[in-house]
Design a protein that fits this description.
single chain; alpha/beta; UDP-N-acetylmuramoyl-L-alanine:D-glutamate ligase; Protein-Tyrosine Phosphatase, Chain A; globular
């Protein structure tokens, strides 16, 4: 009886504490769900009131933000255009953007769509229902969430589930079956030339040029041209728009300062983009410096590839942090390798280790003052 009494006392104490906590947790979840549903419904009503607005949806493993910005810039020549800001690309972020920032007189809304799992793109696409869609290059970005490249591909293709879809352009990396309204692009881009002054390419027998760096951006620019043509822009309007197009900050952005050429590619954390930046830097005739932590959340093989390439290309290799330093130490000549323990010392290092005439590439990293 004594043991039974102890057990009953313990059970009473446990449930008297546990049940109120559980009830509070359940109630908070219900309230949160109700608030989110109200937020979602508010955005839905706003879109319904703007039923003549054209929606363009963008997704990709790499280059979503660049494609979005390029399209929005070109379409602004003809339409009142608004694009989701910065890298806002989640369902919650898009809802917030619609409710708080989308101007009611917008004629074209360009929406970036990101994903960390199956269904994420579908959720956004079936809510905003784009009339036009672009799927850029597909690759192993966020493979830790998707597990396979096929899962990534299938998730990106969810953008095609829009009920209002008129036309879509899919990068050739997706290897899709084309239809009358779903086109594959990339194979029709010819004579790409990328220099430190910009990128040129030929599409449908027309030569285009923009002051955007990196050969890979020919694909992103071509996607913007295709969307612009579909929405009625003339070749002259497109060419004029390309002439005033500015790079996305921190994505192969050129900055000339103190006689030095700075390539800020700090937001580019994938192997293809990094190799393209190295290729671009190789065209520079002067001394070349790279500052990088290497790649994160990837196999060592990719960082070995990076280390070997910068050893061939650069006169000075500065590795920030400890993450990949051992790999760089193994594959980069000791006389050109430096380790930067703290970003607080970066400005001092740039003053002491670089001179006018140098090219400085920030690859997947940059100081706060850039």
């Amino acid at each position: 009886l004594y043991l039974f009494a102890i057990l009953m006392a313990f059970a009473f104490h446990f449930f008297s504490v546990f049940i109120p906590i559980m009830l509070a947790y359940i109630v908070s979840l219900l309230i949160e769900k109700m608030l989110f549903e109200g937020f979602r419904r508010k955005a839905e009503k706003k879109l319904e009131s703007m039923d003549e607005m054209i929606v363009v949806g963008i997704t990709a493993s790499y280059g979503k933000t660049s494609i979005k910005n390029f399209i929005a810039h070109l379409l602004a020549k003809k339409y009142k255009t608004y694009a989701t800001p910065r890298s806002v690309n989640t369902f919650g972020g898009v809802l917030k953007d619609i409710n708080e920032d989308l101007p009611e007189d917008t004629e074209v809304y360009v929406v970036e769509m990101g994903a960390r799992g199956e269904g994420d793109i579908r959720e956004i696409a079936t809510f905003v229902n784009p009339h036009y869609a672009v799927v850029g290059k597909i690759g192993p970005a966020h493979i830790e969430y998707f597990r396979t490249l096929e899962n990534i591909r299938n998730t990106k293709m969810e953008i095609l589930q829009s009920e209002r879809l008129k036309e879509a352009w899919i990068d050739q990396s997706a290897k899709i079956k084309t239809t009358e309204h779903i086109h594959m692009f990339g194979q029709d881009i010819k004579d790409v030339k990328a220099t430190l002054e910009g990128t040129s390419f030929t599409l449908d027998d027309i030569r285009y040029h923009a002051s955007i760096l990196g050969a890979f951006n020919a694909m992103n620019l071509a996607a913007a041209v295709k969307v612009a043509k579909a929405l009625g822009l003339s070749d002259a309007e497109i060419q004029e728009g390309l002439q005033t197009l500015e790079p996305v900050p921190h994505r192969l952005q050129r900055i000339d300062a103190g006689g030095k050429v700075i390539l800020d590619d700090s937001f580019n954390g994938n192997i293809d983009g990094m190799m393209a930046a190295f290729e671009l830097a190789s065209s520079y005739p002067g001394r070349k410096v790279v500052i990088t932590p290497g790649l994160v959340e990837v196999d060592d093989d990719l960082n070995i590839e990076v280390a070997k390439r910068v050893n061939e290309l650069c006169d000075l290799v500065v590795v920030t942090g400890d993450l990949n330093y051992a790999i760089f130490k193994k594959y980069v000549d000791p006389d050109k390798l430096k380790k930067l323990e703290s970003k607080e010392k970066m400005e001092e290092m740039l003053v002491t280790e670089t001179v006018a005439g140098d090219l400085i590439l920030f690859a997947n990293d940059a100081p706060s003052f850039i």
